[in-house]
Amino acid sequence: MSQPTSQPLHTRVDSAAAGQRWPLLGAASWLVSPAILAAAYAVAQASPETGRLLVGSAGVAVGVLASSVLGLLLTIGSRVRRERWPWVGIAGAIITALPLGLFLVGMMLRL
Predict the structure, then answer these.
(1) Phi and psi dihedrals of 47, rounded to 5?
(2) Which residue, 105, 74, 66, 80, is CA-closest to 92?
């Protein structure tokens, strides 16, 4: 006589969905540049003296570098978490690195 079990017979986990998470960090990597731009705008509105500093070359350099670093860190975090759709985080890192690339090209061409 067999013993009744309390577990269902069909407990198979789909291997394609196992270990996959929603791309929260990958999606957040897209929002880094607008968030830093919004923060700089808010600081410039609060204090015009600080706003002049942010518009200068040093302020822009720090902003685009911070954007690139944060976008890269969020992308690495999304890969470590094994998020679903890895292209979201990779594209976010590329998007957040574009302002840094444009800044460096502008410095080289003295624009």
Answers:
(1) -140, 105
(2) 74
